[in-house]
Specification:
The protein has two helices and five strands. It has 105 residues and is α+β, with helices and mostly antiparallel strands. It is globular. It starts with a helix and ends in an 18-residue tail after the last strand.
């Protein structure tokens, strides 16, 4: 009984590790992905890159930081197509003066 349980546990661990995201260096990223990252990273620098399978395609999750603080996260297909763009910690646009808050009007 213990042996079956142990074999099942080992099989489960092996299956789970194949689904985990893998960290890769930016230099190892395909050129198409790099072009998309460069066009969308703004003033930030690439801090971390993870690659994970999505169907028959590899997706690259790229974290971009400014002064060491994460600012953006891009998800780019291996073909270079931008799948998702998230921006963190940005301040909202300043209120526009439409004249409604003036006294006497």
């Amino acid at each position: 009984m213990f042996r079956r349980w142990l074999i099942g546990l080992v099989a489960l661990a092996a299956a789970g590790s194949s689904l985990a995201d893998d960290l890769v260096s930016y230099e190892a990223v395909p050129d198409a992905v790099k072009r998309t990252v460069e066009a969308n990273r703004g003033a930030g620098t690439v801090q971390q890159v993870e690659v994970f399978p999505f169907g028959n395609v590899k997706l690259y999750r790229v974290q971009v930081a400014v002064n060491g603080v994460p600012e953006r996260e891009l998800q780019v297909a291996e073909t270079g197509k931008l799948i998702r763009f998230d921006e963190f910690g940005t301040s909202p646009a300043p209120d526009q003066d439409d004249g409604d808050d003036e006294k006497g009007n």
